[in-house]
Hints:
Mean pLDDT of chain B: 90
Number of helices of chain A: 25
Low-confidence stretches of chain B: 1-5, 469-488
Structural class of chain A: alpha/beta
Largest interface: A-B, 33 and 43 residues
Low-confidence stretches of chain A: 128-146, 161-168
Number of strands of chain B: 20
Shape of chain B: globular
Helix content of chain B: 25-40%
CATH class of the domain at 101-218 in chain B: Alpha Beta
Shape of chain A: globular
Number of strands of chain A: 9
Number of helices of chain B: 17
Oligomer: heterodimer
Mean pLDDT of chain A: 82
Strand order of the largest sheet of chain B: 15-12-14-13-18-20-16
Radius of gyration of chain B: 23 Å
Structural class of chain B: alpha+beta
Strand order of the largest sheet of chain A: 1-3-2-4-5
CATH topology of the largest domain in chain A: Rossmann fold
CATH architecture of the largest domain in chain A: 3-Layer(aba) Sandwich
Largest sheet of chain A: 5 strands, mixed
Radius of gyration of chain A: 21 Å
Strand content of chain A: 5-15%
Largest sheet of chain B: 7 strands, antiparallel
Distance between the termini of chain A: 49 Å
Bound molecules: flavin-adenine dinucleotide, iron/sulfur cluster
Amino acid sequence: xxxxxxxxxxxxxxxxxxxxxxxxxxxxxxxxxxxDSPRGRIDLMKGLHDGAIEMSDTVVEHFDxxxxxMACVTACPSGVRYDLLIEETRAEVERExxxxxxxxxxxxxxxxxxxxxxxxxxxxxxxxxxxxxxLQKLARDSGAVNLxxxxxxxxxxxxxxxxxxxxxxxxxxxxxxxxxxxxSVALVAGCVQRVFFPNVNASTARVLAAEGFDVxxxxxxxxxxALSLHAGRDVEAKAFAAALLxxxxxEDGERFDAIVINAAGCGxxxxxxxxxxxxxxxxxxxxxxxAASVKDVNEFLAGVEPQAPRSPVPLRVxxxxxxxLAHAQGIREAPRALLCSIPGLELLEIPDGDQCCGSAGxxxxxxxxxxxxxxxxxxxxxxxxxxxLLASANPxxxxxxxxxxxxxxxxxxxxxxxxxxDVAIAGRS
Amino acid sequence: MTVTTASPGIERELSDIVGAANCIVDPGELRTYxxxxxxxxxxxxxxxxxxxxxxxxxxxVRVARRYGLPIxxxxxxxxxxxxALPVAGCIVIGLSRMKRILAIDLENxxxxxxxxxxxxxxxxxxAADGYYYAPDPSSQSICSIGGNxxxxxxxxxxxxxxxxxxxxxxxxxxxxxxxxxxLGSAGADPLGYDLMAVLVGSEGLVxxxxxxxxxxxxTPEATRTFxxxxxxxxxxxxxxxxxxxxxxxxAAVEMMDxxxxxxxxxxxxxxWPLDVGAALLIDVDGTAAEADHTATRAVEIAQLSGALEVxxxxxxxxxxxxxxxxxxxxxxxxxxxxxxxxQDGVIPRSEIGPVLREIAxxxxxxxxxxxxxxxxxxxxxxxxxxxxxxVEGEEHAAExxxxxxxxxxxxxxxxxxxxxxxGADKAAYMGExxxxxxxxTMNFVRCAFDPAVAFNPGKVFPTPRLCGDRPGTYVxxxxxxxGTAGRG
Lengths: 429, 488
Ligand SMILES: Cc1cc2nc3c(=O)[nH]c(=O)nc-3n(C[C@H](O)[C@H](O)[C@H](O)COP(=O)(O)OP(=O)(O)OC[C@H]3O[C@@H](n4cnc5c(N)ncnc54)[C@H](O)[C@@H]3O)c2cc1C
Ligand code: SF4
Ligand code: SF4
């Protein structure tokens, strides 16, 4: 049966209230409130659906506090599609619920920045000035008292220091395969990735080329819509998706062996394009075919025989499972296999590794208190295995974990698995 | 019935004890406490309170009693008999925040935990030291120790190791008077009445468990697992009887019928065959030599009983997968049916074949399918009656079939519940097993602990019972409590 075409009502009725999802849920772990568990949130959805309860501020708050980490989807033996349920619910909240002006304002600010690489690029030097000017301290001191202030401080704390070179870095539009050519792929550059972690994209292109693939970076890519989608801004998300689809998979453009993405959150949304654009007659079929060819870079590389030799990287590396890789896409083994293909590298398992780090897209910006609490558990667990390097396949997680660690005075370098592989293949260290 | 209107006085008093965030009165939030794992009936509680300590729990009970509110304890809400189902106007005391492990004493094999600790977390905390907590309900990854005690929960491995009652040696409880009382002792054979045996399985009627001392065991040196398929449940049943008759006490013997296998395969992707009538999943354990020997014998017996195929897991991972399949079976049935009703009954082991056939016939008469996955070793059946709530009348028909199943069990010399408890769901069937004098005697015990019937009223006993000649639970009006009004 095609899950995606089932009605909201049918999807809701899949939940048998068994509670197996409770221990997987980070927010239930934090507070023990039924309404902050997957089962409770589904109960709230049912209540709204059959008119038993109203969409009050309190009810909306429980939806807002959901990380969208999808650990519950992995945990549920009944196959409840909580991912689809919360997406639909969030859209309903945005349509029908009036948020307080300050809350609404901050949300608009975030969504006017993050999904737009051009504006994010402007933000970076501004924040640089903000930090140097001493205004930062002022804002932090005064801001800690209210949610808006906490959110601003969070935004600031998360943005990494950038070098001017990084800001100017450009990804080549085409990188030819090295050695025997095995195929050609298109690379999706991602918004946060592109601006804050341009090296990850550069590494991805180099590794793919070294493994025998022509890498094209289609120009003029916008946001994939993931951030908007996960926050219930579905109209905006669909517009982003349509535009990106037309760029990467135009009616009669070039067809690649795979569309490769290195950001977990974007990957899971790209794989959902078929569902997202199902009501768009001009795009539905194309979106379906496109979604089927999307591959996370870990997944893609684990599926081909390694060709480029790897030199040793003698480091203790803790691999962090990004929720949108492990839970949303079911990709757990591939990144581990890639890292283990590097001689000398010791792979460490983080205890309770399938728990979210609290980053969850823009969650840490919107729900700073909850994110900090969940992040604290993650950071305890990361620190417990004493790694020399953190491997994280999602930019949001990397920002969150590093910023929480540095608040404790721990400076743990972090890299995307593909960057580590790039180093091994290039023979640098 | 007395309907108490919203009175902020109670809320304020309760909030003062547990903090406003842990005193839940919002209608939306209350909705999420309207039922447990039994979803057919929903009742909105008046207020839900989540205390963090024994003292807070006691203070909450005292306030609730002063206002005359019925009290319903709640653990993880996975109960299948409506034990944690609220009653009208009640206060639900949820123990989900009391989830700390307080002390581990490996040498004496004891552990002290708060009631909200998840069953599996007890074993996890000591696994590295080579110990575990034996009772393993299929819901062990989520159900709480407090709930386990209240229900005297069991699981696959209780065949050899016994139920919760054999593994909890002491408890701190809050009584209906709001007093804190210690029961049992860490020692081997406590003096005086064994009140732990009264507490365990009392379904929240005796007191609220706020701490428990559990017995922990050494992990067996070796465990051998095998999975055998059979043409029908008859051969599988004969195999179970044969194994036990040979003097083998397996750690676990679980049976799944064709429908259950289908659900499990769909949910977990295990590669079990779909064209068989039944399967057994068997664990034997002990020292390596002992486990090897008994496993070989048990496999021989399976083959003699007509097994189609016997599989042994290649490694620990595969073994875990097999057990994961079994443990997710109930919930997995959600994959083959929009709704289902979990029944729980016990029969003598020798009756497995005939009883399952009668059950299937009862289902067929109502046009419903019944899946079976159960603890075959101790004849504890779990028939799952499948239905679609959206089809007019199916839910009712399913309830009828479920009721009939209990009667079949009783007719074959069994009982109406193995491990899920009586709760709200089966109170009406108590009369099938007990006569008036039995029930009266049980009520005496209840009244010794809770004369006002404040804890879980309406549960377990078939007709609402009072203690002595009191005219009923008296619900004081707030004005009386505040001293601004009075009666008589
Ligand atoms: C999928 C599934 C599989 C299951 N498999 C099994 C199984 O194999 N074996 C088995 O025995 N059960 C099984 N159950 C039933 C259920 O998990 C057990 O009854 C469990 O012990 C209930 O624990 P809980 O924490 O969820 O308690 P709840 O459901 O919240 O409460 C159960 C009862 O205990 C009382 N209670 C809870 N906490 C306390 C406390 N601290 N003090 C006093 N009273 C309290 C409540 O009032 C209620 O009467 C299963 C349930 C599900 C959903
Ligand atoms: S979402 Fe799944 S695991 Fe959670 S209560 Fe519902 S059926 Fe059970
Ligand atoms: S998505 Fe994550 S936070 Fe949200 S309900 Fe599921 S497990 Fe909890």
